[in-house]
Amino acid sequence: EGQKEDLGQEVSKKCPRKPPNYFVAVPVRDDQILDRIEDVQELIFTKEPDLLRALLPVQTMHLTMIVAHLGTEEEIKKAVLALKQSKTKVEAILQGKDLNMTFHGIGQFNNQVVYVKMSEEAQKTLSRIAEAVEECFIAMNLDISGSKDFKPHLTFLKLSKAPSLRRRGFRKISSDLYKEYEDRYFGTEVFSQIDLCAMRKKKQESGYYYCECSINVGSRGTEESKE
Predict the structure, then answer these.
(1) Which of the residue ranges 13-22, 60-69, 160-169 has the most confident prediction, judged by mean pLDDT?
(2) Rounded distance, CA 106 to CA 115, Å?
(3) Long-range contacts of 203-210 (CB under 8 A, 24+ apart)
(4) Per-residue pLDDT for 224 more than 60?
(5) CB within 8 A of 64, min separation 6: which ones?
């Protein structure tokens, strides 16, 4: 009996998944996209000032490919290596062509998260790229169990960022707050970089996340590495 109980305890100790503390991201830096996101945020804020705390700073704009729990320096080194190794696979998918990520219209998840949508065409290619990166992380035995299916979206507002709102009865973000932008073109970003970012380390001066490693990809990436 005692042995069984011990086993049970051991299993339950292993079961709780450690929350992700790193993520692999595609930064979005195009000025037009960021300006338009700020316009929407401003509009939402004018209509609903309480939501200010739920807005994400445009300096952090990115598409998340995978999330990971990296518990040790060793695992961080492995993740850096995994990202560097994925470069060849990513280049093979791009075949020397630019991947234009076009952002158009606004979507939401459960009225809790509001984001800018990305064109279907670019999504397909980006999903293949995310898969390639994921394979490299899995090959290194890294814990990416917190990752969900990759659906590229540019989040700029989320209720979970401001828990106090929920306590004050804020359960949903109404689409009326941003309907003027629901079908707007936001801009196009040329895919050129993938970052391994820390969730909990101090952000950079630019306001973007702390990066352990970045790889440059696509035509721009090769130009830079030649220099």
Answers:
(1) 60-69
(2) 6
(3) 203/60, 206/59, 207/57, 207/59, 207/60, 208/27, 208/59, 208/60, 209/25, 209/60, 209/62
(4) no
(5) 23, 24, 25
Q: How many Å apart are CA 2 and CA 11, to the nearest integer?
A: 14
In the 8-state DSSP scheme, what is residue 18?
Answer: P
Q: Which CATH number characterizes residue 141's domain?
A: 3.90.1140.10
Helices (H), the chain: 2-14, 31-47, 73-94, 120-139, 163-167, 218-226
Domain count, the chain: 1
Rg (C-alpha) for the chain, rounded Å, is: 20
Please report whether residue 224 resides in a domain. no
Q: Which two tokens stand for residue 126?
A: 């980006």
pLDDT digits 0-9 by tens, 158-168: 999 998 988 88
Output the average pLDDT for the chain: 89
Residue 63 contacts residue 28 (beta carbons within 8 Å)? yes
DSSP assignment letter at 57? P
Cα dihedral angle (25, 73, 89, 91), rounded to 10 degrees?
A: 60
Beta carbons of 85 and 42 less than 8 angstroms apart: no
Residue 7 maps to a domain: no
Query: What is the Cα–Cα distance from 118 to 33, expressed in whole angstroms?
Result: 12
Structural domain range at position 104: 29-216
AA letter at 5: E
Please state the pTM of the whole predicted model.
0.86
155 found inside a domain: yes
Whether 82 shows a pLDDT value over 50: the answer reads: yes
Does 15 reside within a domain? no
Q: What is the DSSP letter of 209?
A: P
